[in-house]
Amino acid sequence: MKARIWALCLVFVAFWGAAAEAQEPPFGYEVTQMVMEGQPVEIVFHSSEALDTLEVNITRLKPKDSWAFSRKNLGGGDSVVFTLEQGPGNCSYKMDVRATSREGEYEGSTTFEVASMEPLDIDVDLSVDLREGTLKFSANRPIGRAEIELFAEGKKPIDAVEKDYGGNSSKAEISWTPGEDTPVLVNMKVYDTYQMWRDIQVFRLEVPHEDVVFDTNESMVRSDQEPKLEASLVFITETLQTYDEVLIELYVAGYTDTVGKPADNQKLSEKRAKSIATWFRGHGVKVPIYYQGFGEAALAVATADEVDAQANRRAVYLMSNSKPATSTQFPNASWTKVK
Question: What is the pLDDT of residues 98-108, one digit of tens each?
């Protein structure tokens, strides 16, 4: 599962010594020493007094490149930002600076290094039952710490947990004390040992509903069954409004009992799930909608073959921000999107 990523840049601060005079330099600078791949390096100069000119020449040693920057008439307390493209991996730079003011001329040189990191990638195990109170996850490098906030239906706060992993592993889990309220939304922030982090949301809510009754071997939604879907539509609409910051999708799964041939039941459950999903699309649900039929492959109540069991003729409407993981409820992940 993927989500948006943010990085906290490590900053190196230094003050320049005057080459020609034993005076405090009229400026300082900051360099971002770690960036994500594709991000520029920022060098920020701060003037402590008025500068007539500021000239900065930077050379990247490998792969070879150079940049020249200049500014005139900087006031005391002004800041100016110069940016340059970082090469892959770790890069070394040499920087020469010359500044002039009414007080004199300042020159100096220094070197610095900048590391380029791959974006922090986090995979969350979505096959777990959040009611059990544990969420497992892994990263593409050692994990420093993690923070989670848990919310129940209606955005009711449940718990907030922080855990420090010390960078000992790229696999981790975080737990909370299960209570009466089932977590619906988990807001998660995972940090690596460089203080880069990634924000992740896990959203999962099964829509309470009354199952639609179809005619034998038919998949068309009868008009007398539409009030059941209309009630579900109200719940879905309200949920989308409550959690409008989450990219929610709707998944409709269909199931049958064991009466008839398994292959026929599979096709029938697929058609019925598609009919329900299409009904929601036609009645104003704008988020992505997917459907799938499981036939008699995921019985709610275990029965022998050719048993007429109402409990097994059912559907599941799941609101989630990611494709459901394979499980006993969803034996495979071959979901079809409604256009």
Answer: 999 998 899 98
